[in-house]
Automatic annotation (TrEMBL):
Transmembrane segments: 415-437
Listed GO MF terms: hydrolase activity
Entry protein name: Ectonucleotide pyrophosphatase/phosphodiesterase family member 5
Species, as recorded: Elysia marginata
Pfam families named in the record: Phosphodiest
Amino acid sequence: MAASLIINFQAVDARNVKARPLLLISFDGFRWDYLTRAKLPNIERIIREGVHATDGVKNVVDTSTLPNHWTLVTGLYPESHGIIGNFLRDDKIDKVFVPKYINADYDNDPRYYDDGGEPIWVTNQLQGGRTGSIMWWGSENAVKWSRPTLQMPYDDNVNFTRRVDVMIEWLSQEYPVNLGLIYFFEPDHIGHTTGPDSVNVTEAIKYTDVIVGYLFDRLKEKNMLNSINVIITSDHGMTTTSEHTLIFLDDYINIEDYDILSHDTVIAHIFPHKGKLDKVFSALEKASKEPNSHFRVYLAKDIPERFHMKNNHRVPPIVAFTDIHYRFVANASRGDHFPLAGIHGYDNEEKDMRPFFIATGPDFKKNYTVSSFDSVDVYPLMCQLLGIKPAPNNGSLNIVSTLLKHHEDDTAATLYTYIFVIIVANVVAGVFAVAVFRQHRYLKKRNTWMKLTPIDTKKRVRSTRPKDIAAAGVHLMAEDKDHVSDEDEIDDMNDKNRNK
Ligand SMILES: [Zn+2]
């Protein structure tokens, strides 16, 4: 586990079987501010009846699909979960990882995923829950020997309403899932091809709203509206790019000197060939310092800490980042470059990279907003909702717990607990004070009596009754005082009774 991992145990002891089921839905590439692009009656109703992060969620670098979907379900930064990009090379594993949108048949080797993170379905199932995953990125791979209880494998051809229908079936069957995850690939695809500002994206957003409406209609039909929590979010946003914002790596370095994971990319993962590291790095560094270079380059160890991506053995020796809107093209003659109008993957400080976040359900407040939070917080939030104990993660409940109804109840309960503790403490202190006072008064009396008693320190008797002691004229042992007191009183009482 990477050094920066902040272990964050939250206060949930075990799975609360009374916890309500939860649905996590991702619409790929749904930027935080797309909500204002069109009339979206279903999404707007969720905002009215639920919660909304008005400035979107701060996601993780690389602001791409796979690292961010994996962060949402693990609460870890990429350097801790190991999915540092859409493409991966791990020199301990003898093949390069290619995402399924490049090759849907590609064997997504579990060794890439089982690298320190524990996805929410594993956490849920280890604590007795059942999970259904519809195409959630990475869920086809076993992690900690576990896959989601039910799953629909990745297939772009399964239409969106069918995905909803299958989930409704899983939620309402004899042994229902208590956690469901659904992935939709729009509006990302349209955003790439026609650009985030296009009318096509607006249409895709409206269709998203139709799917949300369909989901809630189906939940209503099954009488589940008041018994299920639903989080709808995304992995990243989108910004414009063009053929005029390309940076050709061939202008600075020779493709014979290095390997690169993607030949058309915002973040270049560069693996120099043996003995070529200095040559490749110094050429890129020099070029990056030219005016209007529009990129920065780092040796792995110098990648900014705030990206949370450098402490992992999969990080290549050299990583280069373009400025927003720009892209690297490597080995241009090979023809891997393809024209795009929209792109993502940039610095997560760029607001265009932020995804949206809305949620509704019986455990969420109504018509409540926060400005933003980190996407690593979604995992502990989900664990809280499911009543399960989270695995170690980088997230925090500080902001996201305010989205929940019981947050105020908890605050009130804490206050009542404090008041109760103070009252009990005062009562105990009062009783103690009285006891001390009485003891003090008794001892004073006792000492007076002892002073009147002649003492011979050389003799001892077994009896501790004052009469015997007094008769023997022996020293009274300090630890016998109480004993003496009781027996003496009883003896006196007996004597008095006999005399009656
Ligand atoms: Zn994309």
